[in-house]
Design brief:
Elements (H helix, E strand, L loop, with lengths): L5 E7 L5 H8 L5 E8 L5 H8 L3 E4 L2 H6 L4 H14 L4 E5 L7 H5 L5 E5 L11 H8 L3 E8 L10 E8 L6 H24 L3 E4 L2 E4 L5
Parallel strand pairs: 1-2, 1-4, 2-3, 4-5
Antiparallel strand pairs: 5-6, 6-7, 8-9
């Protein structure tokens, strides 16, 4: 394990994967969850994080728009908030907003995102419903780096496959995907904290530090 301190921000929507991330982070000595931020109007994850003693709050683009402020100003302020807390690792878990290129330049190779499909299939919102509508037999989830404004197009860290049964409704499929999401989130976060991930073009290389 690297001795580098991994000061982590979790960007969430409702916070459905937050508990799994928290439980995983507790087992990683050099990783500290500094802040949890939601862009939603309401989020159970914000309240849950506060109960765990983690700084947690809302940061909504809609609030900026009401003040006639731009998307650029929104992300400039978000970057300032994270830099002030010395954040060097960002986990997007349900954050549905596209991070700006200017924001991402301030956190190079430090942002990962979990997406509920086997990328590059079904990017964007409502991926499980897209999979059902398309009639595929298998879908899954993808953990990937976020280098730019591309929607779920970043270099892939880990993926897991989920079989779609004929009887599966949306909630059934989402439940299966969420379980796999939690698995690869924990695995990927540990790999990052251990300094074992390297981006090489479109690929993420797993570094074996014992070699």
């Amino acid at each position: 394990m690297t001795n580098k301190k991994i000061n982590t921000a979790i960007l969430i929507g409702k916070g459905g994967r937050l508990k799994a991330i928290y439980n995983c982070a507790k087992k990683i000595n050099n990783l500290d969850i500094r802040v949890v931020i939601s862009h939603k109007k309401e989020s159970p994850g914000v309240d849950w994080a506060k109960k765990k003693g983690i700084e947690s709050f809302y940061f909504r683009l809609t609030d900026f728009k009401k003040q006639k402020k731009s998307r650029e100003e929104f992300y400039k302020k978000l970057a300032e908030i994270l830099k002030k807390r010395k954040i060097n690792f960002i986990v997007m878990a349900g954050w549905d907003l596209i991070l700006s290129n200017e924001f991402l330049k301030k956190f190079p190779e430090q942002v990962i995102n979990i997406h509920p499909s086997l990328c590059p299939a079904f990017p964007g919102l409502d991926a499980p419903q897209q999979a059902l509508n398309y009639g595929v037999k298998y879908t899954g989830c993808t953990l990937h780096f976020v280098p730019d404004e591309g929607v779920d197009t970043g270099p892939i860290i880990l993926q897991r496959v989920v079989k779609i049964e004929p009887k599966d409704k949306l909630e059934d499929l989402e439940k299966k995907i969420h379980k796999k999401e939690e698995e690869i989130l924990c695995e990927g976060i540990k790999l990052f904290a251990d300094g074992k991930l390297k981006i090489k073009g479109r690929k993420v290389i797993l570094i074996n530090k014992n070699q």
